[in-house]
Amino acid sequence: xxxxxxxxxxxLLAVSAGLGLLCGQVVVAAPVASAPSHKQATSPLLxxxxxxxxxxxxxxxxxxxxxxxxxxxxxxxxxxxxSIATNVLARKVADVDALGVFAxxxxxxxxxxxxxSAIERLREAEPSAYYGLLTQGILELKxxxxxxxxxxxxxxxRSRTADPLALxxxxxxxxxxxxDAEAIGTFRAVLKIxxxxxxxxxxxxRLLAAPNxxxxxxxxxxxxxxxxxxxxxxxxxxxxxxxxxxxxTGQQSRANAIALQWLSGPPKVK
Length: 270
Known about the structure:
Blueprint: H1 2-6, H2 8-17, H3 19-24, H4 66-74, H5 78-90, H6 96-108, H7 112-125, H8 131-142, H9 146-159, H10 164-176, H11 180-193, H12 198-208, H13 215-231, H14 236-248, H15 252-262
């Protein structure tokens, strides 16, 4: 995300050069199937920390696009998606999906200035409000207004009934409103579309693993988290949750091994 931050203003300036093209011929790709997870300002589930491999594995070469960024998001790899979107815009490519992902990334980082600038450009570029509404909803979540955030996501879901991004962030809003049963159902709906969306997997796991969780719920949370670590093995937050769940399910030796291998220094990917 450091790269994303240092290039944010440059990318926003660059995209304005291609805005005329966007307004003339816009094709918004349908969301790809899969979606994010742990603690940020108003929702303890939001955790879009950069992976240990940072932005290197999907860095832009010649043919990067907003579609590539969406594919990264479908597996919950937000740092990669943000880097891809920033690079596409910095190359002055007219790409609505890249602009939309850029806006979402800015809002997730709580960079209201960059997010607001991107929303203004999206109003001109999008044939119908989508990324702009999602971004506004994230800003509302960050500002501690989950009701207003949920209203924005419901507006999206009226025209895109099974949109995984809108569903995911709607789950975050429900969680922020302490409606965790509904949040779990919404995150599960994301996984029906994006089965490899690691953040949705760990979001369900965290909510299932409430302080008074049953043995069955803890075991399900453990399985979901194991899957998340397989999908995104460089995300330490997933390993931290897995170690905690191992400890709670009586697997102390495994919890200690995970802590030694993954949580005592840079992750070791073999």
